[in-house]
Structures are given as C-alpha cells and as structure tokens.
Amino acid sequence: MKTFSTLNRLFQKYLPAFVLVTAVIALIKPGPFVWIAGIAPYMLQFIMFTMGMTMKPSDFSEISRRPWRVLLVTGLQFTVMPLTAYLLSILFKLPSEIALGLILVGSVPGGTSSNIMAYLAKGDVPLSVTATSVSTLLSPFMTPVLLSFYGGAFVPVEFWPMFLSIIQIVLLPIIGGLIISRLLGAYTEKIKDTLPSLSTLAVLGVLAGTVSVNQELLVSTGIGIFFVVALHNLSGYLFGYIVCYLTDQTYTVTRAVAIEVGMQNTGLAASLGMQHFTPAAALAGAAGVLIHNLIGTLFANFVSRRDVDLNMTLRTQTDAQKVPALTKAYARQSVR
Description:
Elements lengths: L1 H27 L5 H5 L1 H15 L6 H5 L1 H25 L4 H12 L5 H8 L4 H27 L7 H25 L1 H7 L3 H19 L1 H7 L2 H23 L4 H12 L3 H11 L6 H34 L6 H5 L9
Protein name: Sodium symporter
Main location: membrane
Subcellular location: Membrane
C-alpha cells in the first residue's frame, strides 16, 4: 500500500508532466496506441466506477450545508462553458466537427482532476468534490441538451443516443461502484488507496488513444486548437472569479469555483466525440486533457506560492499601519 500511496502523490505532483509526455509520445509514435481509442469508453467506465467506489455521503454534504454555492458552481458550469465554446467556435471560424468537439468539452461535467487541483490550490475541497459529483450525475440529461442546442448549429445531434451513451459510460458505472462499496466495504476500503493511481493511468490511456487517432489533424491544425481550448478553459476561471467577487465569496470558495468551472471531463468529451461523430470531434477533448491539467497545475502553484509570500510578509511586517493593508487581501478568508 505504501507503494501505491507514493504513486498517488507522484501522480498528483507531476500530473501535467505525465500528461505532456504521454501526449508527445502518442503524437510522435501513434501506431502502438491506436487500439486504445477503441476501448476508451470502457476505460472511462472504469474511471467512473472508481469514482463511485470512493464516493461517500459526505461528498454531498455541501448540498444541505451550502446549497446555493453548489448551485452557483453547477449553474456556471452548464451555462458559461457551453456558451463560451459556441462563441469561440464562431469567432475563430472553426470547422464544424472541431467546433462540435469544443462545445462538447463545454457541455460535459466537471473533471475529477479538479478536486486534486482545488486541494493543491488550497481551495474549498468539499465544495469541489460535491460540485463534481452533482454535475456528473446531471450530465446524462444536461450534456445532450446543451450539445443539441449549441452544437446543432454546426452538426446534427441526436439527443437519445447521446443520453444513453452517458448513462452507460457515467451513471451505471458510478452506481455499480457505489453498490460494490456498500456491499463489500471492508474489502474495498483496503484498495481505495490504489484507485486514484489506476484511474489516472486510465485517463492517460484515453489521452494516448485519442491523440494517436487524431495525429494528422493535430499536426495539421498546429497550436491553433490548443490556443482555442486554452481560451475556453481560462474563460471558466475568469467567470468563476468575477461571479465570486460580485457575491463576496471567501478566497477558498473562489478558487474552488474557478477551478471547477474551468476544468471539464475532457476524457469523456473525447470519448463521446469519437463514439458519436468523427475523430475531429474528439480533437478538443484530446487537447483539453493536456491544457486543462497544465493550466490547473500552474494556477494551483501560483496561488499557493502567493499565499506563502503573503504569510511571510505578514509575519515580518513591523509597521502597524501597513499590516491592515496587507491583511486586506486575506479578508475573505473568514467563513461566512
């Protein structure tokens, strides 16, 4: 178990590096990874299954304790992200299939990596976990509706096939994980430490498979798709910060909201794009796996270092007139 605990810490600490290396290898040498694209839906089912096994009633505690904050995150996620994806698709005149893929990224629920990033950023982790769980459970309905509404302007989208796919890929595995955890709690508790590592390996597998089958498209589009996906990702952070500032949230809540809104389940988006449309529709999802984790880690490192710098300044500050000015940045820390 110590080995897996070490692996978990390494994956959390160096996740962007693992993602980047995996993407580069699959891009340079796609052949060995093409077969993985065919089993990507099963790998996502495994990821959702492990999510169900690790879910606890406390993961939903924020719904009763702070329901309007959970509603705030979920509302932003399912309004801002698909709309921004649609507007960016028009602004940059993206080809129809690629535009559909970007809108798909904006329409899927929050990614489980957001919980790790919220922790690293010293954000409100319980809120992040609850929001991820709620958006994931809502996704079988919300994702097809949003994709039909926005994506239908580019490519015809059928609601029911998409709905059934998300039920199969997301909801049923989560329910299965919950049932197994409930029935075999004593046994599953022993392997829970291994699940994050196995889940991360599955995410890397989905990335490798998606990149490999999209190798030619990724090379031909160059950095363009990565730039648009990055803008879309950053829009979530921006709107999260703006809304939290306007509603006077604490800094921990603000960080969790920004990360949760910005980071989507890009692996699910890539898989659905491949399954229901064309490899081009999975392109934004493939780019998103890399971009979302990279930006999330950079953001978490930046705000964490900023905390350290401010704390050091506060401890060494001797001028009583200046202390209030410095602590003003931390005025939002008090939990309301």
